[in-house]
């Protein structure tokens, strides 16, 4: 059985809503579900390195960057870098009351 889950394509659509904590709430709910309902031990995601708002959101709920895992994507003749971020259940339990 796989002990991890991967989150992808988390989007807060309207730009003016992005600074109101909705992303943090969405990710927190996804972590709660992943750890408690699905029984997973690790949650991971990839985020493009230029998406600083998303990176900050993920860090606020406890994700850390895995510097050894960087993916390259070719998009319209440009190279986009995606970094891998992870959080494990024990860290989530430790931090969840703080945010």
Rg (C-alpha, Å): 14 Å
Main β-sheet, spatial strand arrangement: 1-2-4-3
Structural class: alpha+beta
What is the oligomer described by this structure? single chain
Order of helices and strands: EHEHEEH
The description of the largest β-sheet is: 4 strands, mixed
Domain count: the total is 1
Continuous helix count: 3
- Strand composition percent: 25-35%
Classify the fold: give the CATH topology.
Answer: Aminopeptidase
CATH architecture: 3-Layer(aba) Sandwich
Give the C-level CATH assignment.
Answer: Alpha Beta
Which percent range fits the helix content?
25-40%
CATH superfamily: Gcn5-related N-acetyltransferase (GNAT)
Distance between the termini: 31 Å
Rounded average pLDDT: 88
How many β-strand stretches? 4
Please mark out the parts with pLDDT under 50 across 5 or more consecutive residues, or reply none: none
Quick description:
The protein has 99 residues and is an alpha+beta fold. The chain is 32% helix and 34% strand.
Kindly describe this structure.
The protein has helices spanning 22-37, 52-60, 89-95, and strands at residues 4-7, 42-48, 64-75, 78-88. It is globular, with a radius of gyration of 14 Å. It is an alpha+beta fold and 99 residues long. The chain has a single domain, classed as Gcn5-related N-acetyltransferase (GNAT) (Aminopeptidase, 3-Layer(aba) Sandwich), CATH 3.40.630. It has a 4-stranded mixed beta sheet. 32% of the residues lie in helices and 34% in strands.
